[in-house]
Design a protein that fits this description.
This protein is of the alpha+beta class. It has one domain. It is built from two helices and four strands; from the N terminus they run αβββαβ. The chain has a four-stranded mixed sheet with strand order 3-2-1-4. A hairpin with a 6-residue loop joins β2 and β3. The longest helix is centred in the last third of the chain and has 22 residues. The chain starts with 17 loop residues before the first helix and ends with a strand. The mean pLDDT is 88.
Length: 101
């Protein structure tokens, strides 16, 4: 009897250009969804300005959204193990700023 071949995981090379590598800052997030997709809007609102601007929008499948949530939970757990518990509302000065859910 011949053993089943074991599939080797593929390595994926990921490149990031200089502009994308700099990232963008967001202090407000809005998450919405339909049956087929999740939409993550990352927004920046300046202090004392009543208007924000979407800096980045990610559209993904529900399955990828759940994988993202699990990966984020794991990273928050590791962060808190190293740096202590985060209190999301501890430094909240402006109730309009944050992440909506």
């Amino acid at each position: 009897m011949t053993p089943e071949p074991v599939e080797q995981p593929q390595q994926v090379q990921i490149e990031v250009d200089e502009i994308t590598a700099q990232g963008v800052y967001a202090n407000l997030g809005v998450i919405s969804h339909s049956e087929n997709e999740f939409i993550f809007d990352f927004i920046f609102i300046q202090p004392q300005v009543p208007k924000g601007k979407v800096r980045s929008r990610i559209i993904t499948s529900p399955q990828h959204a759940k994988r993202f949530m699990l990966a984020l939970q794991e990273n928050v757990r590791k962060y808190e193990e190293q740096f202590g518990e985060m209190r999301p509302d501890a430094d909240r000065v402006n109730p309009r700023i944050g992440f909506a859910h």
